[in-house]
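Re: DQA structure - here you go.
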Amino acid sequence: MNVFVIHGPNLNMLGKREVSVYGDVDLETINTTIMARSEELGLVTRIEQSNHEGAIVDLIHRESKWVDVLIINPGAYTHTSIAIRDALLSIDKPVIEVHLSNIFKRESFRSNSYVSDIAVGLVSGFGLHSYTMALDAAVSIIKG
Ligand code: DQA
């Protein structure tokens, strides 16, 4: 059961960035939690973060050969990137969209996602737990 987690732009700044919105947990802690939960669930999980749209497209293409479920927090690219949407559509693999914050409770431009309608589902608003919930969902998807 292979899962690939992609963190998009500015998520490397978690812990310092808009703490009132995203909390004080940094990306390293999130990744440690993802790996611990993956081990409990029997998942083989790899994680990458990129601030660059094209690099995220490349990651999606590259990992599509290996992955059973792709979990992605596209950050601000959620609301802008047709390239990432097209990359996700190009790989015939289930996608789970994740956000730390509840994107529907914030500025109106964040309510538009180029990913939600092509994802199996969306977890948004539970901070670090959005990722662990997505991992639980990945197991259900893989087990059918
Ligand atoms: C985010 C929400 C996006 O709107 C924002 O641009 C981010 C983080 C989240 O995890 O809540 O960078 O994806």
